[in-house]
Amino acid sequence: MRYSKLFTKTLKDAPADEVAKNAQLLIRAGFIYKVMAGVYAYTPLGLRVLENIKTIVREEMNKEDGQELIMTNLQTKETWSTTSRWDDEVVDVWFKTKLKDQTELGLAWSHEEAIMEMMQQYVKSYKDLPVSVYQFQTKLRNELRAKSGIMRGREFVMKDMYSLHESPEDLAKYYESIKEAYTRIYERIGIGKDTFVTFASGGAFTKFSHEFQTVCDAGEDVLYLHREKNIAVNEEVLEDALKDLDINVEELEKVKSAEVGNIFNFGDGKSEEMGITFTDTNGVQKPIYLASYGVGITRVMGVVVEKFADERGIVWPESIAPVQVYLACIGDAAKVVNKADQLYSDLRFAGIEVLYDDRDVRPGQKFADADLMGIPHRVVISQKTVEQEAVEYKARTEETAKLITDEQLMQVLHV
Amino acid sequence: MRYSKLFTKTLKDAPADEVAKNAQLLIRAGFIYKVMAGVYAYTPLGLRVLENIKTIVREEMNKEDGQELIMTNLQTKETWSTTSRWDDEVVDVWFKTKLKDQTELGLAWSHEEAIMEMMQQYVKSYKDLPVSVYQFQTKLRNELRAKSGIMRGREFVMKDMYSLHESPEDLAKYYESIKEAYTRIYERIGIGKDTFVTFASGGAFTKFSHEFQTVCDAGEDVLYLHREKNIAVNEEVLEDALKDLDINVEELEKVKSAEVGNIFNFGDGKSEEMGITFTDTNGVQKPIYLASYGVGITRVMGVVVEKFADERGIVWPESIAPVQVYLACIGDAAKVVNKADQLYSDLRFAGIEVLYDDRDVRPGQKFADADLMGIPHRVVISQKTVEQEAVEYKARTEETAKLITDEQLMQVLHV
User: Fold this and answer.
1) Whole-angstrom distance, CA of residue A274 vs CA of residue A284
2) Which of residues 153-212 of B touch A (CB under 8 A)?
3) Diameter of chain B by CA atoms?
4) Using the beta-carbon criterion (under 8 Å), do A97 and B107 form an inter-chain contact?
5) What's the ipTM?
6) What's chain A's average pLDDT?
7) What distance in Å separates the CA atoms of residue B123 and residue B286, rounded to the nearest whole number?
8) Are B203 and B197 contacting, i.e. CB atoms less than 8 angstroms apart?
9) Contacts A2 to B, Cβ<8 Å
10) How many Cα atoms occupy the beta-carbon half-sphere of A153 within 13 Å?
């Protein structure tokens, strides 16, 4: 895409009321626009990052036989009154609204009850199990405070998956496979090394749930960590976990972290509560075993910004960057512009996504924008590079640029 | 995909409270699930149709330099109070809700004010114009009645585009190009022949707007139509239009129709109301010219079902069908199953999407499901076809099947 056509511009300053580093940088770089605290629009560059993260998650969920669907935002009181979760005292993040006839509706903050109610229509017998469905849904949560930018949104994108099973053993097997799928997801997104499967509070139906926590100073959680043993415990269950794991708290490192995913075993509790059953192999009606698995798509994007940003701006991992190459044309001599145009065309032909800075602004502005936007590879075409039959190349993570040939550039870009 | 893995099942009956043919068929075929009147979840098959329609629309919007983004559902009172449209007396489809501190919020039913407010940040001078942005957004509208299935949702997917211009002439030029893009969209979706650019009410800022209306008995609009002259007038502006077009009402055919798109010229009225300006070539502050362009993605899906369905079920045009081929394996003899497995593999290798009915149910059930689901091409492998070294083929629109060779099948499927 040509920068001159892109409607967003980089900004010198973020809005004064924006306190989170991730949102400050994303706003300044033109990736998001702030509507209110915890509510952000995603401009073309930001939407590309989101879609790249979604693609990785979708591929891994499909590998585990997940079936993609899309549930609704509007929720009925009836659906959630089958459990206690319609009650604002029990769930304190509901946004509620009303139909014209004053019927109360809720805006979905999660979908367990909705999924189970729907599945009643399709799951009748053991032959219909197991089944696993997922969606990328814009969830609304009425958070009291929303000061962490896109890491805690009142409106945010979540991948939520739900798996239904006939037995706890079958659930356990699938639960483990999703744990592994999540590990692959965070690895591919570039935060694998610092992301840990974490013991966390299990709620009504199970002792522990598992969170995926990424070490991150901007995170809202506190983790007790043993990197070598790959053990992580959320502070909220520290005492219980120490007992169960037979480990001493002094062995553990205390770090701040952000929850980037969670998996939750409801056992047959949700099904019992809702009175939903299937017919087992003996013809007996039994409750269904349920687990749910979330990845905060927008939150992951915020965590990546927080973790990797430096004093010059965002640093995107290649796998989720909005484009791979920032191509800057310096000067308007015909030979320079022709070379830059040709390279733009060649790279696109090779399947490489390029942001082509063809604007009439000074070089320093182009370099600053390339850094602020966090594009992995910066390529500069100028009078000097044309004379030397080379291109100037700098990775976002490097300090200084170097002259390389076109062929070397293609190698760097794995073309 | 293997039918045995798909969690949805076809149903003999739609819910008793579902009165719209499109929703009845889509529910029975396992494409949607009804949450309440006007609110439907999209199961894997339904989501595929939606995504196919979105892909066509996205391609055509990108051709016209549209930049995709995603705005927010949650809207502030401040944004919409810059015009009169926060007022429930002016806009009677708002769903409203509240933050914990009792701040009122709205759920987006359209985005003109939100787009203009955001664009203020990026559009400063004539150099920043024109610009055109679009999104696929889940809109919420508090409709009093919602009895038309997915043709009038309280929650529905819309493609809405907004273009900003420095002059009425520049807007008019772009407006015409989107009119043509829309014509291409409906052509590609398969309803082009029966879809007409229609004079409709212009509201506060312009005499007429343009709707795209598809002739359809289930539609909620009434159209006066001259097919040869390609003239269509919405009943609501008939008198005015007859005068302007110098045409006699007796020349026109009266038909029922459904609005599948609309384009709307706001002139500089919205910008004036909101006090948003740009600096023109002479350094003078001027209001921005705005047009908006909608396509109801879910509604189009409903219209296609209504128009093409026959007594056996849905009939999808190839361009938006969830899969191209329904492959039914009849019997469990090894030779038969091997042949069906091989064909499933060959078709997928050739890039053809297949629903492989590998279930242990009687043939009549498979044939009925293929028809109800509306899959364009039905291929049957049985003892008979294997013996004759052929496959049985029937297009959804044909009455009887015929035996053809594998090579002939590949030709039919344009492989």
Assistant:
1) 18
2) 154-155
3) 82
4) yes
5) 0.96
6) 96
7) 12
8) no
9) none
10) 29
C-alpha span between A208 and B318 (Å, rounded): 49
Go through the domains of chain B in sequence order and give each one's CATH number: 3-308 (3.30.930.10), 325-412 (3.40.50.800)
Q: Which residues contact B127 (CB under 8 A, 6 or more apart)?
A: none
Please give the pLDDT value at position B54: 98
Q: A44–B67: do the CB atoms touch at under 8 Å? A: yes
B74:A47 CB<8 A: no
From its phi and psi, is residue B343 left (phi > 0), alpha (psi between -120 and 50) or beta? alpha
pLDDT tens-digit series, residues A206-260: 888 999 999 999 999 999 999 998 999 999 999 999 998 888 999 999 999 999 9
Whole-number Å distance between alpha carbons of B120 and B78: 15
Three-class SS state of A381: strand
Mutation test of the interface with chain A: which of B2, B26, B33, B123, choosing the one with the most A Cβ atoms within 10 A? Answer: B33
Residue in A44, A70, A122 nearest the CB of B69: A44
Query: Is the model's pLDDT at A85 over the cut of 90?
Result: yes
Q: How far apart, in whole angstroms, are the C-alpha atoms of residue A96 and residue A93?
A: 10
Answer for the pair A72, A138: CB distance below 8 angstroms, yes or no.
Answer: no
Would you say residue A347 has pLDDT above 80?
yes
- Residue pair A210/A200 in contact (Cβ under 8 Å)? The answer is yes
- Alpha-carbon separation of residue A222 from A150, A232, A305, A307 (angstroms): 19, 10, 19, 16
> Is pLDDT at A203 greater than 90 in this prediction?
no
* Contact partners, residue B332, CB within 8 Å, separation at least 6: B360
Closest of B263, B264, B269, B262 to residue B289, by C-alpha: B269
Q: Which of A50, A97, A118 sits opposite B97 (nearest CB)?
A: A97
Q: Please give, rounded to a whole number of angstroms, the shortest distance from the CA of A131 to a CA of chain B.
A: 7
Closest CA to B328 of B362, B284, B285: B362
- Could you tell me if A123 and B7 are in contact, meaning their C-beta atoms sit under 8 angstroms apart? yes
Among chain B residues, CA nearest to A129? B7
- Chunked in runs of 10, what are the mean pLDDT values of chain B (415 residues)? 95 93 98 97 98 98 98 98 96 97 97 97 96 98 96 97 98 98 98 96 84 97 94 94 90 96 95 96 97 98 98 98 98 96 97 97 97 98 97 97 97 92
Mutation target vs A (from B5, B28, B35, B107; most A CBs, 10 A cutoff): B35
Q: Is B97 close to A100, i.e. CB distance below 8 A? A: no
